[in-house]
Amino acid sequence: MPEIIELNVGGVSYTTTLATLQQDKSTLLAELFGEGRDSLPKDSKGRYFLDRDGVLFRYILDFLRDKALHLPEGFRERQRLLREAEHFKLTAMLECIRNERDARPPGCITIGYRGSFQFGKDGLADVKFRKLSRILVCGRVAQCREVFGDTLNESRDPDHGGTDRYTSRFFLKHCYIEQAFDNLHDHGYRMAGSCGSGTAGSAAEPKPGVDTEENRWNHYNEFVFIRD
């Protein structure tokens, strides 16, 4: 067995060392590249083939090299990575993933938005798309930053206090409500409740430049997410 090992993991190529793969003797990788190496299939280029998730395997190699879990901000594949770690019998990595999840403090974040629908010339017969003006974020400052990262706009709420304070003046730099929901779900939050106003609530004349149909369908919704 050479010291430099070339791998094909689910169609993704990797190059590493035998020492890295055998770093933890209790893992499946150490077993495969030890006594079980003769049974490993190879691809057309002579690389050892593993029929697993090739993209997530990079984090497994990183863990074997550094003995620490390094995941990018906004990582959304924890459950799949957990399954890969279980397959390769990476007990230490499994513990790190679970501890990271359990260490997150409980909290509550409220998402709100005011929206309408943009119409074409034919009114209701030509609905083009949902129109959101802004997505508001309310909650503990530290947790809002943890969940939304660089997509959080804090310009309306200058940080005059610590991260343990609460705010109702953050909003997102984008207008995609499903992206906000995905961020919350990926950080362990679940929706606990929601409420919304009805449409066509105002009979007053809209301001100059405001479309009559859009004004008619204005509404406001809030969604409460909690993490236990």
Automatic annotation (TrEMBL):
Main location: membrane
GO cellular-component term (any): presynaptic membrane
BTB domain mapped to chain residues: 3-105
Tagged with keyword Phosphoprotein: yes
Tagged with keyword Membrane: yes
SMART domains assigned to the protein according to its UniProt record, in alphabetical order: BTB (SM00225)
Subcellular location: Postsynaptic cell membrane; Presynaptic cell membrane
UniProt cross-references to SUPFAM superfamilies, sorted A to Z: POZ domain
Family matches, as PANTHER family: GH08630P, POTASSIUM CHANNEL TETRAMERIZATION DOMAIN-CONTAINING
Function: Auxiliary subunit of GABA-B receptors that determine the pharmacology and kinetics of the receptor response. Increases agonist potency and markedly alter the G-protein signaling of the receptors by accelerating onset and promoting desensitization.
Protein's name in the database: BTB/POZ domain-containing protein KCTD12
Natural source organism: Drosophila mauritiana
